[in-house]
Amino acid sequence: MKSLAFQLLFILMLFASTNLISQEAYTISGIVEDEQHKPIQNATVFISGSQKVTKTSETGQFTFIGITAGNYSISSKMLGFETPSLAITIHDKSINLAIILKEKPITLNEVNIISDDDRKWYYSIFKEQFLGKSIDKKKCVILNSEILNFIGKKINPPYDLILKVSADELLIIENKLLGYRIKYLLRAFEYNAKTRITSYDGDSSFEEIEGTPEQKKIWAKNRLAAYQGSLMHFLRSAYNNTVLQEGFIANQLIKSSNIFDERIYRNPNPAKFSSLVNRVDSSFVSYKFNGLNIVYRPKKASLEIVRGESKVIIDSYPDDRNLLPIDATGKSSQLLLHLKEAIIDARGSVYSGYQTFLIRGLWSEKRLGDQLPFEYQP
Predict the structure, then answer these.
(1) What does the pLDDT look like over 360-373, one tens digit per residue?
(2) What burial letters (b/e) apply to 268-298, b meaning 16+ CB within 10 Å?
(3) Of 162, 183, 214, which residue constitutes the final position of a domain?
(4) What's the pTM value of the predicted model, to 2 decimals?
């Protein structure tokens, strides 16, 4: 009996030890220099999508502690310099970086004179496309909108407008819905009114807003609502192979065998993620698929679990008569891979960024006002 108890204790200790190793914290440190390798003091350095932000010391040094294994994008901002972004991966050791900032070339910018009415119009478009359509515009505001530069190309307004927006400084957004102050490094923004396509590129850092206990309860509720069913939530569940258990139903996108039918359909059988995800090591998974239709329906997902996920074979292609159209209710999302694979960590971070995916449907409507930092845990 003592021998059995000892064996059980040993197994528990071994499991705890393994878990501690996988959660070991590392350090990201480094120096920010100019092209002559002179240290740059007081430059802003942050981990994109997180709450980790700092300033460089007199010798250009910076340090982030408490970093777990995963994918990270490190950005640096200093007035008068270009804004690089470094994609790094932490496996099993700390990392030291040398970030070289290049001076921005001094150019005579084209004078772009716009009327007050056009600026208001452009700004309203930018807010909707950048912050999101579904959020309360009064509770998620840009505090320094005066730094925005607008270039609008009106071919046949308002339908053929092409709007480009830039900023030389960090945008500061206060999101009182979720309780965050966001600093955003806007690299590019373009909206095409004719195609209704919005594309933007940049990096964000999050800071929690001070609030009363009552406000914090509201923020916690709103954060959970923003998280549930989100892309971050889905990628974390894909990492843990708990997609159905987390409330998601994902069906493969497939083409009809009819060569005259160019439409895309969805397989009626939920995808079996053990066939889509390969574990690289204890910290990363490789995610490969052609295309998925994803909907967040916890109750229906529970029924699928009862039916038995083990009976679903992802490679089975049903007869064309059983194919289902893509959900047109606006509550589903379509996820396609731009690259041959996506490397995902436990936080739901993708090595090459969310640009790895082509996103359509519900998730494509989500914007900065809906985002949470990678530190968030429900």
Answers:
(1) 889 988 999 999 99
(2) ebbbbbeebbeeeeebbbebebebbbbbbee
(3) 214
(4) 0.83
